[in-house]
Amino acid sequence: MMLQKILKAVKISTRLASTSPRSEFSILSDADISYFERILPKGSVKTDTEDVKEYNIDWMKQYEGYGKCVLLPTHEDQISEILKYCMKKKLALVPQAGNTGLVGGSIPVHDEIVLSVKKLKNFRDFDREQGVLTCDAGFILHDLDEYIKEFEYMMPFNLGAKGSCLIGGNIATCAGGIRLLRYGSLHAHLLGLHAAIPNEKGEVLRLGSTLPKDNTSLHLHHLFLGSEGQLGVITRVTLKTVPRPKSVQSAMLGTNSFKNVRELLALAKIQLAEILSSFEFLDRDTMNCLEDNLQLKDVLPTKSEFNVLVETSGSNSEHDKAKVENFLQDCMDKKLIDDGILAESVSEAQTMWRLREDAPMAVSRDGYVFKHDLSLPLEHFYELTEACRDKFGKMTKRISTYGHVGDGNTHLNITINRGDDREQLYKCLYPFIYEWTVKHGGSISAEHGIGRMKRPYAHLGKDSVERDTVIRLKKLFDPSGPEGPTTMFFLAPKLPYSTVIRLSFRRYVAPTSLSSNAKPQRRTLPDDGKTLHDFIAEDAKRTRKRHPNIVPSVEETNSYLDPELFSGKVHYITYGCQMNVNDMEIVRSVMKAAEYTEVDEIKMADVVLLMTCSIRDGAEQKVKTMLHQIKKNSSKKKFVGVLGCMAERVKHELIERGKLVDVVAGPDSYRDLPRLLAVARGGSSAINVQLSLDETYADVVPVRQDEAARTAYVSIMRGCDNMCTYCIVPYTRGRERSRPIDSIVEEVIRLRDEGTKQVTLLGQNVNSYRDLSESVHSYDPSIPSTSTVPGFKTVYKPKIGGRTFLHLLDRLSNVTPEVRFRFTSPHPKDFPLELIHLIRDRKNICNQLHLPAQSGDDQTLERMGRGYTKDLYLRLVHDIREVLPEVSFTSDFIAGFCGETEEAHQNTVDLVREVKYSFIYSFPYSMRGKTKAHRQLQDDVPDDVKTRRHQEILAAFREEAEKLNQKYVDTTQLVLVEGTSRRNENDGQGRADCGTKVIFPNSEGIYKPGDFVNVQITAANSQTLRGEALGLGSL
């Protein structure tokens, strides 16, 4: 009788009565693949069977499709072009975010194209005053939470899959999580979004705004919350984040009835009031499952029937802790709990939360699991679990429940042994659970969505008025689609019940493979799963005010560009650090691939690209002077691009006010340069300064200016997480991300084979390198967490997983023993003794360490946010010299930082004299906008005082360096020849292991660049050693 009722309920719409197939779709052809490869960056079209496999299987491994092509666009304009093309060609596709869903909503039904948004990772903006975050849809939730943590904000929701789910998918499924009790649902936080619509024009809807209050239009962006890709592909989101609490208290309670759980929640809402942020529960079967499958034991000895996890978030630790303690005491007095414990440390709280957050993993390891995400009134919240045990207990291995009692969301999990007949259980289990839920005033989907799992039941509890309204809404977006939208939630297809079962479990036979000789064929898809027509929408016209001199950026333009605009003659100019030199090598590679030809003089060029530096004001002034000279001295129009760190800081000044440049490209947008230049050469200006959380250019082979050079620089990581108060780098180059070790090793081996004898590893914080490419968000106990020197502090929590700088340097020095290695620029906190021992043991790692101090005064170091004191720094120097007696130190210093007194300056001079550096970089302080110092400190040291202090630091350095270098006289140093001395062409020049320049006679040119030569040192000054060549040497 129950089965007949559910079969009848599935057939809900007379407009869906026909069993004829839906629209016809084309089979993907080689021509289609070629088109996608033309419009997407290299490596963004995947067709290899192994490459596409992960996109065809859902997280729970319940559904599998046979999509043969995965598209990975990097900008929303590429998505709009894809959708427009697929509509024209009648190609079916399915949008996919992180593929962490639990209902099979983003998996191909047959062989649809998978459109993944995981590479949409342009970071747009974060308003630190309002807490408003704007970013592309491909960001991982955890990474966003970590980014805004530095500004004392956090994401308003938190999920178990936070380490892999994408923000676009969170919006598309209206994710809930454990913070909803305190901060509400995503409806309260979503301020706006962009969504690509597959109409004939390939348009993008731009809905909402970045304002917390904007009531000038219908809030259409909320239509996309929970839409699961049916109305469009979400490409960008704007969210209101929440202040990060300064005090968090966690407590675990045990009780023996669900009635007590409900009373505990009522009491917590009264006594904990505004600080109550989470109220979670786990039943005894879940706790047993955790112990059986993950060996996680209950923190309470009583083993009660229910564990309740309570968390508060406030601003006063003492006050909040007292409230929780009083709450626990009242619970004991009222006999609502058998036991309870308040976490006394962060580690204790993490242990409690691990039980809740690892419950899904424990269940997944328990056997084959039927997971149900439901909303129920609290009076019936646990009755469903008990009803399932009564009805199906003998057919199952375990029935367990955990969830968010605070918002009425239960996660019911029914497991069977993996060899048992799951289809038979499905036939009676699903109808029972969903009908029971609706009958008792619940919802069959609380936060996981509908997907393929729940489509046959999504109509339950929805009246005809609601269904008809949804039909009209769908028709508004899709006037040319089928009469009855067959994938809207309330409109399940009219399929025999056995077909529904088969669709849920069958793994389809893959269609025939692509053949370049085969004629395009037509095929029909059954009415199962999302395809292009499920989210096609008609023109969504929207006018938008733009600055007249700025073309729509890469994510706003949809027009095709003239191919003739993608080539020409280009001249390169580089300012700043070695990282900029390396970045220009990447740019050379990108431009060369786009068929641009490099020329030596500006007058010969069509395009001039300047790699810029923002570390000090003087560096920016040099760039601006050059820009004026180019504009003044050019007889014909030259298209000028400003690249690198200066791009973000002064983009509007350069393009809008000065009209000095045509293209502005930030450090993470070099791949986009050919397109940006084509836009500029088409008559407009173009900007792309968005930062990325994962761009490392690992797949770009740099084109070096001097191919004959025997020394090379290899970038191993980008960005910086240290957030020193004076430094602009985290704001211009973004957060830390590291290249995969294998790509670095391959580049170094290629350089060795080309004759390179020395490689310098580059990074803004090179020794904090951590390759997560093979172990993202995983923990390997054999790999240490962040190896911070004892006593040194960081602004971020310890990093775990991945392979560290120690692993990288060990592998490189071992694989290429004939290559000498240096590295720069490190941070003193990241010098574990294991690294120092490796340098001692490997002859091809130079005994020269850059150890930036910046200051020798404790109060100044604290204002700088360096995380150490002078004594700690000197202790590190001592410890390194204990292992490496012959080590040579270099350093960086800032003269005249905010609040620096004469006494503080003298402390710095004393440090220079005590350490005795072989070389230093010293500069008068130059305040940079957007830094923490700019926001919170006063640049109160006069310029003339800064200059004097800078000169005094240099004088102290030179005096000590000259004494230091005298010890090399009468010693033999192994020197790598770099070329001819600038002062005397009869002299050769190179560098010793210690990094100091060595000059020696070489009038006959016996010793060539790349030779290792033994040189007897005969004289020395503060900067240079002189000597006589004794003959060739080796490492």
From TrEMBL:
Residues 568-682 form the MTTase N-terminal domain. Residues 63-244 form the FAD-binding PCMH-type domain. GO terms for biological process: regulation of macromolecule metabolic process; regulation of primary metabolic process. GO terms for cellular component: cytosol; mitochondrion. Keywords: 4Fe-4S, Coiled coil, FAD, Flavoprotein, Iron, Iron-sulfur, Metal-binding, S-adenosyl-L-methionine. Potential regulator of CDK5 activity. This is CDK5RAP1-like protein.
